[in-house]
Amino acid sequence: MNFTTSPTHNVLLGAVTLLCCALAPQAQATDASPAADETTVTLGLGMGVTPRYMGSDRYRPLVLPMLSIQHGAWFADTTRGVGLQFQSDSGFSASAAINYDLGRKEKNSTTSPGGDELRGMGDINGATVANFTLSQQLLDWLSVNGEAELRMAGEHRGNRYRFGLEGILMHTDRDTLSLAIDAHAGDSRYNQTFFGVTQAQSQRSIYSKYTADAGIYAYSAALNWQHTFDAHWSTLASLTLTQYADQASDSPLVRREGSGLGLFAINYTF
């Protein structure tokens, strides 16, 4: 399996896909598409715990101020970035966005991934990325989806991919309980950046040399519960379990093959 692409190819692919998504709502708009003149703003605050970095056996508190603005097909989101989304009444949806990846620090950080045990590995600088998602509803309660995150500028850290299934376990007027099961993959540069150890890094750190190839590096299961109080207030509780495998499981940087992320958020929409 080979996921390798050049930075120039990523920029061109990003531009073409953004253009296609921009044209799609005009050419294929359906009743399921957001109204062109409707604007929705959501403010929120999320709190939880997350591993210090991918593969870490230590955790750090997570505080996430959240802002989401939706105007027709356009959105600006502190989680997803800035972009376009499209949804048809046949159950197909797609989005394209520009976002920013924080990278990884070689010391403990309260605002980005990193840990003191990574000293000598060097920082992984941030990178501007293009995110593309596709989803197709198979049944009333089941959909298949995929995501590609392509590096556009900044750190040459490669590209990552995700594909999986999402099922609605329960849905009422006030509550929605869903389960998403995904496989996470990276090209050779991405896996080497986050899980590999070069000879130079090995000499500066406590880790032995390790070379990661392209392929799946983890599987995850995410349980999400959204509760709506009224037209404005809602909460979200999320638990994500990740199991590192294949290209990551033998990496000396992965101190624990299984990890969890817990998050609780309260949101106000107006």
TrEMBL record:
The keyword Chloroplast does not apply. It is found in: Cell outer membrane. Residues 1-29 form the signal peptide. It comes from the Bacteria. It holds the Pfam family MipA. Keywords: Cell outer membrane, Membrane, Signal. The keyword NAD does not apply. Belongs to the MipA/OmpV family. This is MipA/OmpV family protein.
